[in-house]
Design brief:
Length: about 250
C-alpha cells in the first residue's frame, strides 16, 4: 500500500491545494497521449514538453504513454508507437527532465485488437504484462467477459481504462463488480475526480474509490489544456480518498 504522511505533501502557503514535488506519490503515470501526431493527444513536441515538465514537477518519475489503437479511428501499429517514442526520449534528454518515458497502448476492444491478440503483437506494461483496454462509449460490450478471458489466457492482465466514464455502467454498478470478478483491474482517470467529465462521472469515480476498486490512477492527459483541471486533484479531501487505495502504479518504476 502506498502511503505517505498526508500533510507532508503540501506546502503551507495561502493556497492549501498547492502541490509539492512530492504530490504524485504514486510516481508512475500509466495512461496518457504524449506522442504527437499519432492520435487525438498532443499536437507537437512543445506540447509534450509542457505536459511532461508539469508531471515531473508534481513528482511523477516515469510516464508510460498509451496512444490509442483502434481499427476505425487510430489504426496504429506497435512499430508506429515505438518509433514515436524515440523523439520524446530525445526531448527528455535535451531538456534534462527528471523522468523517463516508455510506451504501451490504449486498445479499443474491436476486431483489430483481437487480431493483434492472436498474433501476440501487443504493447503491455510492467513485468506482469498489464494491458490497457477501453470499450466503446455507446453501449455495453456484450462480448466483454469472453474477450477479458481471452486476454488472460494469452498471459496478460487486462486493465480497464476509466470505468467510471462509461455511462451505461452508471446505473449498473453490478456489471462493474462482475468485470472485476473476471480478474480485470481498473484504472481511474485523474481528471474524473476533478469534474472534467461531469458530475455523474465524478460520482462514479468516488464510488469506485469507496469500493476500493481502483488499482491504477492515470492522467489520460491529451494536451496542456488539461493541466489546470488536473491541479484540482490536490484538494486535501480528494487526496485523502486516493490515499486509502492500494495503487499499483509505483510497482511499475523498475
Ligand atoms: Fe486515453
Amino acid at each position: 500500500m502506498l502511503t505517505k504522511g498526508f500533510w507532508q505533501r503540501f506546502i503551507p502557503t495561502r493556497d492549501a491545494h498547492a502541490p509539492t514535488a512530492d504530490a504524485c506519490y504514486w510516481r508512475v503515470d500509466m495512461h496518457s497521449h504524449m506522442l504527437p501526431g499519432i492520435d487525438d493527444g498532443v499536437a507537437d513536441l512543445n506540447e509534450t514538453l509542457t505536459c511532461l515538465k508539469q508531471l515531473a514537477d508534481w513528482g511523477i518519475q516515469k510516464v508510460i504513454t498509451t496512444p490509442h489503437i483502434s481499427r476505425d479511428w487510430y489504426p496504429n501499429s506497435t512499430a508506429d508507437i515505438r518509433q514515436g517514442l524515440v523523439a520524446v526520449q530525445e526531448l527528455i534528454a535535451e531538456h534534462q527532465l527528471p523522468l523517463t518515458i516508455d510506451v504501451a497502448a490504449e486498445y479499443l476492444l474491436d476486431d483489430f485488437f483481437l487480431s493483434f491478440l492472436e498474433q501476440d503483437d501487443l504493447l503491455s506494461f510492467g513485468e506482469k504484462r498489464y494491458l490497457l483496454v477501453e470499450t466503446g462509449w455507446a453501449s455495453a460490450p456484450l462480448r466483454l467477459p469472453d474477450i477479458l478471458f481471452r486476454i488472460q489466457t494469452h498471459g496478460y492482465i487486462p486493465v480497464l481504462a476509466h470505468p467510471e466514464r462509461y455511462k451505461y455502467y452508471h446505473a449498473d454498478r453490478n456489471a462493474l463488480a462482475k468485470i472485476r470478478e473476471t480478474g480485470c483491474l481498473f484504472q481511474l482517470n485523474w481528471m474524473s475526480l476533478c469534474g472534467r467529465y461531469g458530475s455523474q462521472v465524478e460520482k462514479q469515480a468516488r464510488f469506485l474509490l469507496q469500493q476500493h476498486w481502483v488499482d491504477f490512477i492515470g492522467s489520460d492527459m491529451h494536451r496542456p489544456n488539461d493541466l489546470p483541471a488536473m491541479e484540482q486533484l490536490f484538494k486535501p479531501s480528494t487526496m485523502k480518498l486516493l490515499e486509502e487505495q492500494t495503487l499499483l502504479n509505483s510497482t511499475l518504476l523498475s
